Amino acid sequence: MAPRVLISDALSPAAVQIFKDRGIEVDFQPALGKDKDKLAEIIGNYDGLAIRSATKVTPKILANATRLKVVGRAGIGVDNVDIPAATAKGVIVMNTPFGNSITTAEHAIAMMFALAREIPAADASTQAGKWEKNRFMGVELTAKTLGIIGCGNIGSIVADRAIGLKMKVIAFDPFLSPERAKDIGVEKVELDDLLARADVITLHTPLTDKTRNVLSAEAIAKTKKGVRIVNCARGGLVDEAALAQALESGHVAGAAFDVFITEPATENPLFGYPNVICTPHLGASTTEAQENVALQVAEQMSDYLLRGAISNAVNFPSITAEEAPKLKPFIELAEKLGSFAGQLTDTDIQTVRITYDGAVAGLKIKALTSAAVAGLLRPALADINVVSAPSIAKERGIVVEETTREIAGDYESLITLTVITEKMERSISGTVFADGRPRIVDIKGIKVDAEFAPSMLYVTNEDRPGFVGRFASLLGDAGLNIATFALGRDRQGGDAIALVEVDGKVPAELVDKVQQLPSVKQAKPLAF
Ligand SMILES: NC(=O)c1ccc[n+]([C@@H]2O[C@H](COP(=O)([O-])OP(=O)(O)OC[C@H]3O[C@@H](n4cnc5c(N)ncnc54)[C@H](O)[C@@H]3O)[C@@H](O)[C@H]2O)c1
Ligand SMILES: O=C(O)[C@H](O)COP(=O)(O)O
C-alpha cells in the first residue's frame, strides 16, 4: 500500500507534486493545522505529516496517530512539535535547517532599516496626506554596533549582511568558537558586554530554558539608552512587558518583532507604540524560501517513507539512501538478537552491551543499537520501535553500551548482544550471510547455526545421551513437525543447547513436558 501524507499547513504546492511524483498519496489541507480537533480525528489515516508552525503536534494528536512514522517541518523551528512524545511514539521528526535562513536574515535586516528610518509610520502618515517631513528623523546604520544574540545559521548571515553595511558586529553565543567568529568577522563577546555596547540588538537563538527571557527586564536595563531591538527568532526570548515599559520610558528607541509569546498575536503588550513594528511571523515567507523548504521536506519525508533514509531528523541519527540498504539486514539482525534475549529475560535488565565486530562496525551503529534495544524491550512493551527505544531504555534506567572492533574474526561481521540482570549475564551473537539473512551463531559461548524462524523452541540441557531422541518423540507425539534442528555444546558432557524451528505454535503443555525431561535446564518457545 502506498504511504499517505497529510499536509496540514500552508506549504508551497511544490511539495504536493514531489509526493505524487514519488508515488505517495497526499492530502493537501493547508488550514487544517489550526483545527486541532479535526486533525486529531483524521491523523490516524496517515504515515506522514508535513507542517509549518501553525500545526501543533501535541501528545493528544500523537496518541491518535496510529500509523504515523514521520513529521516533516518545512522550516527550522520544531518547538510546535512535542519531540519527547513523538520519540516515545517512534515518530521521526525532521526539519529543513537551512532552506529559509537567508530569507529570515533578510527580514531581520529589513526590520532594522524599518526601525532606523521609521518606514511604516512614515508610510502611514504620508498616505494619510500629512507630509510630516520634520516628524521622521532617522539614524544612520553605518559605523553603528549590531549585537547578535545567537550566531548560528541565521545570525551569521545577518552578520555578513551587516558587515556589508559597514556596521561593527559583536555576537554573544556560548557555542560560537573563536575561529568561527574570526572567519565571519564578528567580535565574540559576553552578554553584558553586548548589552552595554550595541546600538541595535537582534536575536537569533532557538527558544530554550536557557534563552527564554534572555532580554529580561534586568538585561534591558543594561542596554545602551536609545537601543533598538529586533526579534525574528522566537517569541519568549524577550520579556514583552518589560520591553513595553522600556519603550514607554524612552530607554529603548524602538523594537521590531516578527514573533511573539502568543501566536497568532491578536493583542500584545508591544502593540500600539509608535516606535514598534510588527509582522505576523513572516521571517520565512518568501517565494524562494517556501519553495526550498517545501521541496526539501517532501524529498526527505519520501526518502524515509519509501527507502528508510533519514536526514535532518532531530530525534534520530541520519541514514543516507546509500546506507539504508546496507543497514537493513543488520537492523533486522540486531532487532532479532534483541528479541531473542528479550524473550529469555524475565527479570529487570540493568545493562545491554552490544559489540560490533568487523565490517558492521563501520556502519551507523546508533541505528543498530536502537534496533537491538527495541527488539529486547518489545516482549514487555509492544509499541516500542527503533526511534523510541533509546529514550524508553533511558527512562527505565537501562545502561546501553556499544563497542566497535573493526577487525573481523571468524565472520566478516558479527554482532554480540549481552544482557546483564541482577542474577545473570547472557550473550548471543549473530551475523548476516551473503543471502542477506540473519543467523544466530553463538549463544552463551556455545556455537550454533540457526536462522530466526516464526516459531522456535529453545532448550538448554546437560550434554547426555538420549536427550535428542526423547525430545524429538515429545514433539512428534504433540503433532509438531520439526523444520530445522540446531545443536551445540561447550564440551563433551558439558552444557548443550538445542534450537529447533517447528511448523506451528508450540503448545504450553509441550513446553512443560520438555522442561521435565531429565537433563533439561530450560525450555522456552520463541517467536520472530
Ligand atoms: N521568524 C521566522 O519566521 C523564523 C524563520 C527561521 C528561523 N527562525 C528561528 O530563528 C532562530 C535561529 O535559527 P537558526 O537556523 O539560525 O538556528 P541555529 O541553530 O543555526 O542557530 C542558533 C544559535 O543560537 C545559539 N545559542 C543556543 N543557545 C544560546 C544561548 N543560551 N545564548 C546565545 N546563543 C545561543 C546556538 O549556539 C546557535 O549558534 C530559531 O529560533 C528559529 O526557529 C525564525
Ligand atoms: O522556524 C521557522 O522555520 C520559522 O519560524 C518559519 O515558520 P513558518 O514556516 O510558520 O513561517
Automatic annotation (TrEMBL):
MF (Gene Ontology): NAD binding; phosphoglycerate dehydrogenase activity
Oxidoreductase is among the record's keywords: yes
EC id: 1.1.1.95
Pathway per the UniProt entry: Amino-acid biosynthesis; L-serine biosynthesis; L-serine from 3-phospho-D-glycerate: step 1/3
Catalytic reactions of this protein: (R)-2-hydroxyglutarate + NAD(+) = 2-oxoglutarate + NADH + H(+); (2R)-3-phosphoglycerate + NAD(+) = 3-phosphooxypyruvate + NADH + H(+)
Domain of life: Bacteria
Keywords, in A-Z order: Amino-acid biosynthesis, NAD, Oxidoreductase, Serine biosynthesis
Pfam families named in the record: 2-Hacid_dh, 2-Hacid_dh_C, ACT, PGDH_inter
Domain ACT intervals: 456-528
Enzyme class: oxidoreductase
GO annotation terms (biological process): L-serine biosynthetic process
Entry keyword Amino-acid biosynthesis: yes
Function: Catalyzes the reversible oxidation of 3-phospho-D-glycerate to 3-phosphonooxypyruvate, the first step of the phosphorylated L-serine biosynthesis pathway. Also catalyzes the reversible oxidation of 2-hydroxyglutarate to 2-oxoglutarate.
Family note: Belongs to the D-isomer specific 2-hydroxyacid dehydrogenase family.
NCBIfam families referenced in this protein's UniProt entry, alphabetically: PGDH
Name of the protein described by the UniProt record: D-3-phosphoglycerate dehydrogenase
Origin species: Ancylobacter aquaticus
